[in-house]
Specification:
Shape of chain A: globular
Oligomer: heterodimer
Number of helices of chain A: 15
Helix content of chain A: 40-55%
Number of strands of chain B: 5
Shape of chain B: elongated
Largest interface: A-B, 36 and 34 residues
Order of helices and strands of chain A: EEEHHHEHEHEHEHEHEHHEHHHHH
Distance between the termini of chain A: 29 Å
Radius of gyration of chain A: 19 Å
Structural class of chain B: mainly alpha
Number of helices of chain B: 10
Strand order of the largest sheet of chain B: 3-4-5
Chain lengths: 352, 267
C-alpha cells in the first residue's frame, strides 16, 4: 500500500512478477546461464545502485525474499505471477505455474496466479490448460513466443494451433492473455517478439484482453498503431518503467506516447520482479511529473488519477478485483504466524 | 597465430578509423563508439584481425552478421590489407558467424535452415530509413527550438542546411549524419526535409509527421540505452562516460591490442 502525502491510499497491483530459479544447479546448458546473465545485465544497468543484488542472490532468491520485497519492503498490495517455463534451458523450468502456486496457496489474497501455454504442445497442451483452470482457477496466461522447443525457436499468435488455444481460452474464461513483446533476442532472423501478430489475435478474439508486456519495445510505434485500432489491447509497463530512474527524460517520452495513443485506462504497472524491485519504482513513479513542454506538446498528463489507474485499478478491472473489499480483506489478514510448516513446505518445493 | 604489431603502428589507427564508419544498423551509431570492437591487430602477412563483442549472447544473429560483414568490407578497402579476419566473441552463433565470414559466405548460406527467407539488404534498408527519419527529427527539433517557423524549415534546401551556423555540437553532429543519409533518401531535389519517399511534407500535417519521426527515434533510443547498459553490465569495462573515442585510439591513449575485455566475460 502506498500512501500519498495527503494520506490517500493507492492500491497497487504489480502486473508482472516471477519467482524464478536461474541457479547453476538448475541450468541445463549454456543458454540457461546466458539467459539469467542477460537478466542480470538489465538489473544492474537500470536499478539504483543501492538496489543492486549480488549475482548469486539474483540467480535464486527464494519465496520469502520475494514476499518481503513485494509486500513488506515494497508497496505492492497484490502481484500477478507471469510464468516463464524455458524447459529447454532449465532442468525444472525457470519459473513455472506450479512453483508460483506454492506462494499463492500461502498468501491467496496477495497473488494472482497465471498459467501459460505453448501451441507447439498440440492436443496435450489443451488438456494441460484445462487442468490448470480446474486446479488453480486461472484467469490469465503468460505467453512467451520466443521460447525454444527442440528445433523450434519460437511461434506466433497467428499459428493455427495458437488460434485453437485462444478459442479454448474464450471457452474456459481465461480472458487475460499476457504476451511478452520486448527487446530483441533470438530466434535468429524472424523476431518472435515482433508485436505484429497481436493485431490479428486481438481482432479474431474480441472477448480476450491482450496485455502486451513491455509495450512491444523497441517497436513502440507498431504497438501504438495496433493498440489504437484494437480496444482490447493493453500495455504492460515492465521494462519501460525502470528508465524512470536512469533515463527520466527518455521515460517521459515513452510514457507520453503511451498516454497519447492508449490513454491511462489501458496501461498496467509491472515491476518485472526480480529484475527490478517494486519499492523504488513505485516511489519514483508516484513522485514523477511530466515536464510542461511534454504535457503541452502531446496534450497528456501523468496526474494522480492516471497513476491510480496504472498502478492498480486497470489490473483490478481485468481480474475482477473489488478494490475496497479486497483492501479490507488484506488489512484483516495477518501474514500467517502459525504457518511455519507451510513455509517449510514452500522451501521444500522450491528446493531452497 | 603470431601477431606482430605495436600500438604505434599507423596501420592500426587506419583500421580503427575505417571501423568507425561502420554502424550498428539498428542504432545508427558507430561500432567503435558503441565499444563493440575490442581488438585490432595487423600480422606480418598484412592480415587484419578484428575482435568484436555484443551486449548479449542473444543479440540477433542477422545484425551481428551484418556488422561483421560491414567491418570486413570497410577494412578490406585499405590498399595494404591482404585479408580481414573478424572474430565475434561470446555470442551464441560466434562459431557459425566467424566461419561463414571466413569463407566469404552470405548470411543466407551461413544460416541456411533458419534464415531461408531473410534478406539482409531489405533489413539494411529498413534501418537506413529509420536512421534517416530519426536524424531528420533531431535536426528539425533543433531548428524549432531555435525559433524557426514550420514554413521556414520546410523551405530550407540542402546547401543552406549544410552551411547553416549551428553552435550546439550535438545538433551539428546530427545534421552532418542527416545530410549523409539524405543523399540516399528524400528524392532527387534539393529540398532539405522530405519524407523518406521523397515527398514534400504538407505543412498542415506537420505535427503528425513530426510525431511519426519522434516514435522512430524513441524506439531506436530504447535499444541504444539498453545496449550500452547491457554491454557495460556484461563486460564491466571502464566507465561509459569516459569511453574511449576514435581520437583516443588514434592518439594511442587506449591499448589497441587485446584489452582483456573478452577475458572479463562471465562464462
Amino acid at each position: 500500500m502506498f500512501k500519498t502525502a495527503e494520506g490517500e491510499e493507492i492500491f497497487i497491483i504489480d502486473g508482472h512478477t516471477h519467482l524464478w530459479d536461474g541457479s547453476k544447479e538448475n541450468q541445463k546448458n549454456i543458454h540457461g546461464g546466458q539467459f539469467i546473465d542477460c537478466f542480470y545485465g538489465y538489473h544492474t544497468a537500470l536499478s539504483p545502485k543501492e538496489y543492486v543484488w549480488p549475482k548469486e542472490k539474483f540467480d535464486k532468491y527464494g519465496a520469502e525474499t520475494m514476499y518481503n520485497d513485494l509486500f513488506v519492503e515494497g508497496y505492492d498490495d497484490m502481484a500477478i505471477f507471469q510464468p516463464t517455463y524455458l524447459k529447454d534451458f532449465y532442468v525444472n523450468g525457470f519459473n513455472t505455474t506450479e512453483q508460483n502456486a506454492v506462494l499463492k496457496e500461502k498468501y491467496p489474497d496477495r497473488f494472482i496466479l497465471n498459467g501459460a501455454w505453448d501451441p507447439r504442445d498440440g492436443e496435450a497442451g489443451i488438456e494441460a490448460l484445462h487442468e490448470l483452470v480446474e486446479k488453480y482457477k486461472i484467469q490469465g496466461v503468460k505467453l512467451y513466443t520466443a521460447e525454444w522447443k527442440g528445433a523450434s525457436k519460437g511461434w506466433k499468435l497467428t499459428d493455427e494451433w495458437a488460434q485453437r488455444y485462444m478459442a479454448e481460452c474464450v471457452k474456459l474464461g481465461v480472458k487475460n492473455i499476457h504476451v511478452h513483446k520486448g527487446p530483441t533476442i533470438l530466434p535468429l532472423n524472424r523476431d518472435a517478439f515482433d508485436v505484429a501478430d497481436i493485431d490479428d489475435a486481438a481482432t479474431s478474439f474480441p472477448e480476450l484482453n491482450f496485455i502486451v508486456e513491455h509495450c512491444g519495445l523497441p517497436r513502440l510505434d507498431d504497438f501504438c498503431w495496433i493498440a489504437v485500432q484494437e480496444p482490447n489491447v493493453y500495455g504492460g509497463l515492465a521494462v519501460a518503467l525502470p528508465f524512470i530512474h536512469s533515463r527520466p527524460d527518455y521515460f517521459n517520452q515513452v510514457i507520453s506516447e503511451l498516454l497519447f495513443w492508449l490513454g491511462p485506462d489501458r496501461l498496467l504497472y509491472g515491476s518485472d520482479y526480480a529484475i527490478w524491485s517494486p519499492k523504488w519504482m513505485v516511489e519514483k513513479f508516484m513522485a514523477h511529473e511530466l515536464p510542461d513542454n511534454i504535457k503541452k506538446d502531446k496534450g497528456v498528463d501523468l496526474d494522480l488519477d492516471a497513476k491510480r489507474k496504472i498502478l492498480g485499478l486497470n489490473a483490478a478491472k481485468l481480474y475482477g478485483i473489488d478494490v475496497p473489499a479486497h483492501k479490507a480483506k488484506l488489512s484483516g489478514t495477518a501474514p500467517a504466524g502459525a504457518e511455519e510448516k507451510t513455509m517449510a513446505q514452500v522451501a521444500e518445493v522450491l528446493g531452497d | 597465430m603470431t601477431l606482430h604489431v605495436t600500438s604505434g603502428d599507423p596501420r592500426v589507427a587506419e583500421v580503427w578509423a575505417s571501423l568507425a564508419s561502420v554502424t550498428d544498423p539498428e542504432l545508427d551509431e558507430s561500432v567503435t563508439e558503441l565499444r563493440f570492437v575490442t581488438q585490432v591487430e595487423v600480422d606480418a602477412e598484412d592480415r587484419v584481425h578484428i575482435g568484436f563483442r555484443l551486449p548479449t549472447y542473444w543479440c540477433a544473429a542477422n545484425f551481428a552478421f551484418l556488422m561483421a560483414d560491414d567491418m570486413r568490407v570497410a577494412v578490406s578497402s585499405l590498399p595494404w590489407v591482404r585479408q580481414v579476419l573478424v572474430d565475434l566473441r561470446d555470442h551464441m552463433y560466434s562459431d557459425t558467424i566467424n566461419e561463414g565470414l571466413a569463407q566469404g559466405r552470405s548470411f543466407k548460406s551461413t544460416f541456411s535452415d533458419e534464415a531461408a527467407d531473410e534478406d539482409l539488404d531489405d533489413l539494411r534498408r529498413t534501418f537506413r530509413i529509420k536512421a534517416f527519419q530519426r536524424r531528420q527529427e533531431a535536426v528539425i527539433r533543433h531548428l524549432l527550438d531555435r525559433g524557426w517557423t514550420v514554413q521556414a524549415i520546410l523551405d530550407l534546401d540542402c546547401p543552406h542546411l549544410a552551411t547553416l551556423a549551428i553552435d550546439d555540437p550535438e545538433a551539428a553532429r546530427q545534421r552532418s549524419r542527416y545530410l549523409e543519409i539524405r543523399r540516399e533518401f528524400g528524392g532527387s531535389g534539393d529540398m532539405a526535409f522530405t519524407t523518406a519517399q521523397g515527398e514534400p511534407v504538407d505543412p498542415r500535417n506537420f505535427a503528425e509527421y513530426l510525431s511519426l519521426l519522434r516514435r522512430v527515434r524513441i524506439n531506436t533510443e530504447f535499444n541504444g540505452h539498453l545496449c550500452r547498459g547491457l554491454l557495460q553490465a556484461r563486460y564491466d569495462d571502464p566507465a561509459p562516460d569516459g569511453e574511449p573515442t576514435l581520437a583516443d585510439f588514434i592518439a594511442g591513449r587506449v591499448a589497441t591490442g587485446n584489452t582483456g575485455g573478452n577475458d572479463g566475460c562471465r562464462k
